[in-house]
Specification:
By secondary structure, this protein is α/β, with parallel strands linked by helices. It folds into two domains: about 160 residues, 3-Layer(aba) Sandwich (Rossmann fold), CATH 3.40.50; about 120 residues, N-(1-d-carboxylethyl)-l-norvaline Dehydrogenase, domain 2, CATH 1.10.1040.10. About 55% of the residues lie in helices and about 15% in strands. It is built from 14 helices and nine strands. The protein has a six-stranded parallel beta sheet, with helices on both faces. Strand 4, helix 4 and strand 5 form a beta-alpha-beta unit. The radius of gyration is 20 Å and the shape is globular.
Length: about 290
């Protein structure tokens, strides 16, 4: 049985670590805020590493789930010297394809394989072990990682060499931007027409226009309460990555630009740590303007 260590115990990382534990794989945990790793280690009866070198020292594989590109490279830099040759690092963060390539290069110098394996499915999918996992890296590393990936996700696919997982996740984030924006506009429209909103979700959730976001996030809009499933500021970070990747191809993506502008407004108003369904706040305001 592989000994798997986990670095990064945020809203997604904790339930993912729980699922690795249920599969009998979790060996040790680390978090920048040590009280969090110590609490989880006590709960799951695994080891709380004192630092990243300690986490890496006796691990067959390390799963990373942190917030940003700089965080990934910092974690990899600290893991690399202590990882045994032949170990595997799986990064489930959402970062740029360039960052994935840089991480892979650092680890290759230590004879450690790397997979970029960003995930989608929100905190619900992380808790249920039903995440969609998009993987880039070598076929051999992908096959070795199967027990780990299957413990955390349901839909798992290998898209190609290093960076392909992150490019696929960027595609997903563009789709999410358009969908959540459309859902927010539609719900604001329905509210302005005094429709019974619960019934709207129940009925249209079975129709052609439905989506995961509509079924799972439109209820936030009805309640005007946006608990963080996927924070506005994190999606804004992801869309900035999409913007940069598109710019390299000489393209500007209208949906990305418009949603980034809206997220900027939400962050400026203090809503950056709310779920992205908080976009509804802006759409509802459209119907509060006086009609000429």
């Amino acid at each position: 049985m592989m000994k798997v260590a986990f670095a990064g115990l945020g809203a997604m990382g904790v339930p993912m670590a729980h699922n690795l534990h249920r599969a009998g794989l979790l060996h040790a945990v680390w978090n920048r805020t040590t009280i969090r790793s110590q609490a989880l280690a006590t709960e799951l009866e695994v080891r709380a590493a004192k630092d990243l070198a300690d986490l890496a020292s006796d691990a067959d594989a390390v799963v990373i789930c942190v917030a940003a590109d700089g965080d990934v490279l910092s974690v990899v830099d600290q893991l690399a010297p202590a990882l045994p040759a032949g170990a595997l690092v799986i990064d489930c963060s959402t970062v740029s394809a360039d960052t994935a390539a840089a991480a892979a290069q650092i680890l290759a110098q230590r004879q450690v394989e790397f997979l970029d394996a960003p995930v989608s499915g929100g905190t619900e999918g992380a808790a249920r072990g039903t995440l969609a996992i998009m993987v880039g890296g070598s076929e051999s590393a992908y096959q070795r990682a199967q027990p780990i990936l299957r413990a955390m996700g349901k839909s798992i696919a290998h898209f190609g060499t290093t960076g392909a997982g992150q490019a696929t996740k960027a595609t997903n984030q563009i789709m999410c931007a358009g969908i959540i924006r459309a859902v927010a506009e539609a719900m604001a429209f329905a509210r302005a027409h005094k429709l019974p909103l619960d019934k709207v979700v129940d009925t249209l959730g079975q129709g052609a226009g439905s989506s995961w976001y509509f079924v799972n996030r439109a209820p936030n809009m009805i309640r005007n309460h946006y608990p963080a499933g996927f924070r506005v500021r994190l999606h804004a970070k992801d869309l900035a990555i999409c913007r940069s990747m598109a710019a390299r191809l000489g393209v500007e993506l209208p949906v990305v630009e418009e949603v980034l502008q809206e997220y900027g407004q939400l962050i400026e108003r203090g809503y950056g740590d709310e779920d992205i369904s908080a976009t509804y706040r802006l759409k509802a305001e459209l119907f509060e303007r006086p009609v000429d």
